[in-house]
Amino acid sequence: MAEWLRPRHMNEALQLLAELPAERYQIISGGTDVMVAQQLSAPRDIAVWLDLSAIPELKTVEVTTEGIRIGAGVTLSELRRHPEVQKHWPMLAASAAVTGAAPIQNRATLGGNLCNASPAADNAPVLLAYAAHLEIAGPNGTRLLPYEQFHLGYRQTALAAHELLQAIHIPFLPAGSRAYYRKVGTRAAQAIAKVGIAAWIHFDAGQGIIVARFGLASVAATPCLLPMVSHYLEGNHLKDVRESTIREKVSSDIKPVDDIRSTAEYRLEVTSRLVWEAIHDAH
Ligand SMILES: Cc1cc2nc3c(=O)[nH]c(=O)nc-3n(C[C@H](O)[C@H](O)[C@H](O)COP(=O)(O)OP(=O)(O)OC[C@H]3O[C@@H](n4cnc5c(N)ncnc54)[C@H](O)[C@@H]3O)c2cc1C
């Protein structure tokens, strides 16, 4: 029979983590991924469940002068309804609102969505586009990692043994910033993304592009950026951007695969069109 540990504070959780052999424990937050995997796809022989759901430090949302700090245990329901998130980081409110259905959002945490490390995670593109940082806690203290360095390979993350995700930091965007988020699935709701895209575009007063950051889901083994597209757009003027060049750059940036949800060809086509739409329709 597995043991269930439910620490009440971060210090207690970190102490327990440090004492447990890495291969024997399983962290659980909302359980919406890990319980499904345990029941259906890949059951593991778990000796100890480390349940993070009673740790108040993981459930706080703080707005600072620099941006927002979201505890890893904040649920997607809380995020989609949070007035500051809706006002300053609307793409996150939007992605939280399309992650599964309301009962899932009531349990699912933002930290769980990232640490589960699905290439199709709906909130991942948004955090990539917003240039988020992750606050990771472990036996040696706390470190801050750019989110774009978190996903190392298919379902592999930069979390070391005995570490956990403590919070997500997103900066305020400068004036002139526009955002665009779109999840393309089989249905409008309750479908895993064929392509998910989030864009942060920062224009100068004359439609010159200062920053163009795109986060993508479901087009590679991990959630990813579009560095070649960004390089082409940044410093360019909107009127000089060519759709054919966007296509070329998207093809250099991503090599999607065929799977049960879609084809590589469809994903390339849709991604190119959505990048084009994002730079023109972001608001
Ligand atoms: C019916 C259904 C529909 C869904 N639809 C979608 C969808 O449309 N889009 C989508 O993106 N996802 C979807 N999901 C997946 C899921 O709901 C999300 O990924 C969710 O955000 C995971 O959060 P959680 O708190 O439940 O994570 P858990 O299941 O508790 O954990 C997931 C993983 O993250 C690790 N983990 C959790 N918290 C931490 C932490 N703080 N530090 C370190 N590791 C941690 C766990 O060890 C585990 O490996 C769906 C799931 C279900 C069951």
TrEMBL record:
GO terms for molecular function: FAD binding; xanthine dehydrogenase activity. The keyword Flavoprotein applies. InterPro entries: CO_DH_flav_C, CO_DH_flav_C_dom_sf, Diverse_Substr_Oxidored, FAD-bd_PCMH, FAD-bd_PCMH-like_sf, FAD-bd_PCMH_sub1, FAD-bd_PCMH_sub2, Mopterin_DH_FAD-bd. Its EC number is 1.17.1.4. Residues 1-175 form the FAD-binding PCMH-type domain. Gene3D superfamilies: 3.30.465.10, CO dehydrogenase flavoprotein, C-terminal domain, Uridine Diphospho-n-acetylenolpyruvylglucosamine Reductase, domain 2. Keywords: FAD, Flavoprotein, Oxidoreductase. This is Putative xanthine dehydrogenase FAD-binding subunit XdhB. The lineage of its organism: Bacteria, Pseudomonadati, Pseudomonadota, Acidithiobacillia, Acidithiobacillales.
